[in-house]
Specification:
Helix content is about 35%, strand content about 25%. It contains 16 helices and 18 strands. It has helices at about 1-15, 35-40, 45-55, 90-100, 145-150, 155-160, 160-185, 225-230, 270-290, 310-320, 325, 330-340, 350-360, 415-430, 440-450, 460-470, and strands at about 55-65, 70-75, 80-85, 105-115, 120-130, 185-190, 195, 205-210, 215-220, 235-245, 255-265, 295, 300, 310, 370-375, 395-400, 405-410, 455-460. The strands form four sheets. An eight-stranded mixed sheet has the order 6-10-11-18-17-16-15-14, with helices on both faces. α7 (about 160-185) packs across α16 (about 460-470), α10 (about 310-320) packs parallel to α13 and α14 (about 415-430) runs antiparallel to α15. It binds one RNA strand through β1 and α5.
RNA sequence: GGGCCGUUAGCUCAGCGGUAGAGCAGUUGGCUUUUAACCAAUUGGUCGAUGGUUCGAAUCCAUCACGGCCCA
């Protein structure tokens, strides 16, 4: 580093000062030349034909490696080499000799092809654009230290093609989801991130304070109650892709801020949502990966097959050794749950006991996509009751590889029932359940004006991207995952 | 919150009670159609932090910090 600072001093004394006037060469129609464009266009040309063409190109990028007279350049679209011929003039040789690995450099030369078939620019002009003061990590091993990869994501992106690909896939997923919904006449909206009353999910919120109004505000745990107000307002198909914040622990599946898609669809029910979700996921695999076969951590998943749809008791029978009689017997379920180390509350009804057993014994065993349906009303305070059994709801959760990917239901649009459900939640809150919901009087007022029959769903974008990129941790799909700050996390002198 | 594992040069790692090591990167020189380029020489360290045991600690013990995996 001291050496490089010295070089920078030398460059400055010769008038070099982080130039900002560089432009890449272009076609006559203005198409900018990039490594990927040149590879695609000229990669197949014969060496002699290419040299006869004598195409002069100007490119810039980060100097990644020197191999004899070749300099490996990495830019946004890919890589290409510069070549410094033995007979090059002294000024050019001196300029290139000043370069260090990691510098951002520019060069002009004719596009040629090596004996092994790689394209390169035979340099005639060169200039330094940005001096790198810090050396790059090991060329071959890259950075293996996960902590360093997360804390200095820029280094991870410079060094690891796989990491760059993950975030490209993430961008494509979000973009494809938007396109999918817009094609179906859904409208993207933005609702508040700061809530006076946290709502829409069972989770502990982050609290902040508004100085001018001298009141607490909560970072949203879900946008649900605001999006449903919009369906009351007459926007029949709305969606939002944005961050939620939950004040919970960190794990390979949890980050305090994470990205959710939520969408609401008037005159649809939870079965329509399941159909739409299957179509969406299948299409995403095809568009982003080019196949409906996804390998996640060694397990092959086929998204082309219809997704299983199982009620909670059906899932228990399918995935555990429990008997048909025991599934309907509260005492047997409670005993089994206690055997699993679950603290069973006396207030739990049959549906809740079944659902808790699902979470304890089945969730982790699921590999291929499974829609779990008809959750107990007790754990679904915003979902419509099932017409045949008011203890259950018209709800589903989609599980893939043991993880909840989506959650949706026919919306509860009966204001009186919703008010009762809120009251039951407030009772839990008063008992000390920090994840229970608050009573949202304005939301009840909205329902009293009338919400059309509607179905709504949330899809965890981070977990979806994990599946599609074979990422074992949510931190691998977040550019800047939350980490505990380090005491010495200031500027570090090398 | 609990258990296990880890933290040594810019990066990847070895060393596990007796003088702090290797490869890559860096520096100097050579080589000029290389592909983890190669050859020669060479610089570089508060062994995560603090305390303890010991004649002697990177190494053993304790506490703390940060990270990873598993569990709640």
């Amino acid at each position: 580093m001291a050496w490089r600072r010295g070089k920078l001093e030398g460059l400055r004394s010769h008038g070099w000062d982080f130039p900002n006037d560089f432009k890449r060469s272009c076609d006559a129609d203005g198409t900018e030349h990039t490594a990927a464009l040149l590879q695609a266009r000229y990669g197949d040309w014969e060496k002699a034909a290419l040299e006869a063409e004598g195409l002069r190109v100007t490119l810039a990028g980060r100097l990644m490696n020197r191999r004899g007279p070749f300099l490996v350049l990495q830019e946004g679209s890919g890589s290409i080499q510069f070549y410094l011929a033995k007979g090059a003039e002294d000024g050019l040789r001196d300029t290139v000799a000043q370069w260090d690995i990691g510098d951002i450099v520019a060069g002009t030369g004719t596009l040629e092809k090596s004996g092994k078939g790689d394209l390169y620019l035979n340099l005639t002009e060169a200039r330094l654009l940005t001096k790198a003061l810090r050396p790059l990590p090991d060329q071959y091993y890259g950075i293996a230290d996960t902590e360093l990869r997360y804390r200095r994501r820029y280094l991870d992106l410079i060094m690891n093609e796989a990491s760059r690909d993950t975030f490209r896939v993430r961008s494509q997923v979000v973009s494809a989801v938007r396109r999918f919904l817009e094609e179906r006449r859904f409208m993207e909206v933005e609702t508040p991130m700061m809530h006076v009353i946290p709502g829409g999910a069972a989770a502990k919120p982050f609290v902040t304070h508004h100085n001018a109004l001298d009141m607490p505000l909560f970072l949203r745990i879900a946008p649900e109650l605001y999006l449903k107000r919009l369906t009351v307002g007459g926007f029949e198909r709305v969606f939002e892709i944005n961050r939620n914040f939950r004040n919970e622990g960190l794990s390979t599946k949890h980050n305090p801020e994470f990205t959710m898609l939520e969408f609401y669809w008037a005159y649809a029910d939870y079965r329509d949502l399941m159909d739409l979700t299957e179509t969406l996921l299948r299409g995403l695999c095809e568009q982003v990966l080019g196949t409906t076969t996804v390998t996640y951590q060694g397990t092959v998943l086929d998204f082309a097959k219809p997704f299983a749809r199982l009620t909670v008791p059906e899932a228990l029978l399918a995935y555990t050794d429990i008997s048909a009689a025991a599934v309907q017997d509260p005492a047997a379920l409670a005993a089994r749950l206690q055997g699993q180390g679950v603290k069973v509350a006396s207030s739990w009804g049959l549906g809740r006991l079944q659902f808790e057993l699902f979470e304890a014994e089945v969730e982790d065993k699921i590999t291929d996509p499974v829609f779990l349906t008809q959750h107990p009303t007790e754990v679904s305070p915003l979902a419509r009751r099932n017409a045949d059994n008011p203890e259950l709801t018209d709800r589903f959760e989609l599980f893939i590889m043991g993880r909840e990917i989506a959650n949706g239901f026919s919306e509860l649009n009966d204001p009186e029932d919703q008010a009762e459900r809120f009251k039951a939640q407030v009772a839990l809150l008063d008992e000390g359940d920090e994840e229970a919901m608050h009573y949202d009087a304005d939301y009840i007022t909205a329902l009293e004006y009338g919400m059309p029959p509607t179905a709504g769903e949330g899809i965890g974008i981070d977990r979806l991207v994990m599946l599609l990129t074979d990422a074992p941790s949510i931190r691998d799909v977040l550019l800047f995952p939350h980490l505990r700050p380090k005491a010495a996390d200031g500027p570090d002198p090398i």
